[in-house]
Amino acid sequence: MAKLEGKIALVTGSGQGVGQGIALALASEGAAIAVVGRTLEKLEATCRLIEARGSEALAVECDIKDPGSLSACVDRVVSRFGGINILVNNAQEVPLGSLEAVSDEAFEAGWQSGPMATFRLMKLCYPFLKGDGSIVNLASTAAKRWDASHYGAYAAVKEPIRALSRAAACEWGPDNVRTNVILPHAKSPGLKGWIEQNPEEASAFMASIPLRRIGECEEDIGRFVAMLCSEEARYINGQSIAVDGGQAYMG
């Protein structure tokens, strides 16, 4: 029997990249997937890939910066599938650049799509997750960099997600809701663009990864998330886990 047979997963930003990889991996283990994001065409493409693997999928257009859109998203997923067992907060806009270069608007978009969206969606899903739920939130190792130049704003909108996740793990653990964080390196469209724009820094970045490669969205990141949401990881709660080939030291 598949590890996640009968489970319902809501994955934000699953029209492409890491979110899509996670959605596909969860579907391969038997979960039905609510594919959530901004671009319907991309969401429907992911749904077709999921359905080809024999799992159910629902495309849900959603602006994660809008509380009303998040609430409507959860209502639609529950109406279609009857509940939610797994929540993956993946989607986020990230402000990159020096402190002087990052605008207030870019920073605010990172805050609203990251910590605020995570905070809101966890609370919306909590009543359905009680009993056997798993939350996986995505953060970043940007705050672990020795030289934080040009990554301060990025780290600043990712680190609060770890704090919120730890609180959820402690407050909701008695209800058998587990909350964990992954900090991944993966071949996402965003990372690809960064590599193309910063070839020298990207080369040094690659050399700093002990495994000497960037993770695959489904095979490396998605499958780990699927395991983390399964009974095999039922005692893992409140942890931040770097899924990055050994680059970051989380101690």
UniProtKB/TrEMBL annotation:
Pfam families reported in the protein's UniProt record: adh_short_C2
Catalytic class of the enzyme: oxidoreductase
Sample GO molecular function, one term: oxidoreductase activity
Keyword field: Oxidoreductase
InterPro entries given in the database record: NAD(P)-bd_dom_sf (IPR036291), SDR_fam (IPR002347)
EC number of this enzyme: 1.1.1.-
Gene3D superfamilies: NAD(P)-binding Rossmann-like Domain
Tree of life domain: Bacteria
Family listed: Belongs to the short-chain dehydrogenases/reductases (SDR) family.
Protein name: SDR family NAD(P)-dependent oxidoreductase
Taxonomic path: Bacteria, Pseudomonadati, Pseudomonadota, Gammaproteobacteria, Oceanospirillales
